[in-house]
């Protein structure tokens, strides 16, 4: 079994907890209170900047030059494309000031940056993979369970449920599996730990927004 199939099995309890979060249920039926979505968007805007920097660090460290190019594109996607989504939401929801980073976002963003800088490259790549993979799965889940026609969060849903995003995720999984193939079992276990930690932090990110958790 390849590394990714195995790790995805391992995070099933976390993934199922994510699918059962009120944030996801209310995003799906469009009833999520605006102030919670605004909190999420503002925090995510901070997150994306740090995430983009983490991807750029990985791009510069990864050995295969084609992988460097792929990670440069991921970084660009995080900063340019995703920020466009946020900007349009900032307008739609009258959000002018994103404020400072709050605990869930701060923890996640800085964990990714230190991992991207200090950990072995395969561990750094494994740490960013849940950002792609969990969002794709959640995007598909929401798309298949959509109830309301006039969902105010439709743009967000379309971004992550779409085919374009799916292609990026497939590329990210493929690179990570290739790196894992050249690793010892001990190194693969460190990759797995990093993937699991980021999956927990994805959960915490939504939980922090739903509960409007501040310092
Ligand atoms: C907390 C949090 N985690 C993951 C994503 C999803 N995401 C953001 S950028 C990017 C890659 C684009 O190249 C992906 C998958 C998010 N928005 N917020």
TrEMBL record:
Record-linked Pfam families: TENA_THI-4
The encoding gene: tenA
Organism, as annotated: Polaribacter cellanae
SUPFAM superfamilies in the cross-refs: Heme oxygenase-like (SSF48613)
Catalytic activity: thiamine + H2O = 5-(2-hydroxyethyl)-4-methylthiazole + 4-amino-5-hydroxymethyl-2-methylpyrimidine + H(+); 4-amino-5-aminomethyl-2-methylpyrimidine + H2O = 4-amino-5-hydroxymethyl-2-methylpyrimidine + NH4(+)
Family to which this protein belongs: Belongs to the TenA family.
Biological process (GO), any one: thiamine biosynthetic process
GO molecular function, one term: thiaminase activity
Domain Thiaminase-2/PQQC: 8-211
Gene Ontology cellular component annotations, sorted alphabetically: cytosol
Lineage of source species: Bacteria, Pseudomonadati, Bacteroidota, Flavobacteriia, Flavobacteriales
Entry protein name: Aminopyrimidine aminohydrolase
Keyword terms: Hydrolase, Thiamine biosynthesis
Pathway(s) the chain acts in: Cofactor biosynthesis; thiamine diphosphate biosynthesis
């Amino acid at each position: 079994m390849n590394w990714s199939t195995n790790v995805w099995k391992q995070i099933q309890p976390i993934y199922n907890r994510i699918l059962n979060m009120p944030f996801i249920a209310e995003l799906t039926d469009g009833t999520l209170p605006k102030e919670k979505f605004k909190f999420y968007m503002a925090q995510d805007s901070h997150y994306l900047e740090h995430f983009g920097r983490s991807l750029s660090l990985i791009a510069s460290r990864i050995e295969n030059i084609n992988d460097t190019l792929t990670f440069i594109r991921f970084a660009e996607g995080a900063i340019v494309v995703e920020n466009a989504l946020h900007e349009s939401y900032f307008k739609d929801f009258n959000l002018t000031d994103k404020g400072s980073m709050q605990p869930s976002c701060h923890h996640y963003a800085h964990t990714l940056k230190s991992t991207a800088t200090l950990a072995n490259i395969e561990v750094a790549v494994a740490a960013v993979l849940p950002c792609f993979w969990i969002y794709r799965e959640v995007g598909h889940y929401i798309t298949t369970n959509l109830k309301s026609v006039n969902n105010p969060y439709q743009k967000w849903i379309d971004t992550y449920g779409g085919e374009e995003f799916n292609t990026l995720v497939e590329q990210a999984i493929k690179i990570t599996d290739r790196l894992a193939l050249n690793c010892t079992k001990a190194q693969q276990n460190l990759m797995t730990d990093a993937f699991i930690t980021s999956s927990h932090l994805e959960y915490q990110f939504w939980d922090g927004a739903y509960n409007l958790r501040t310092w």
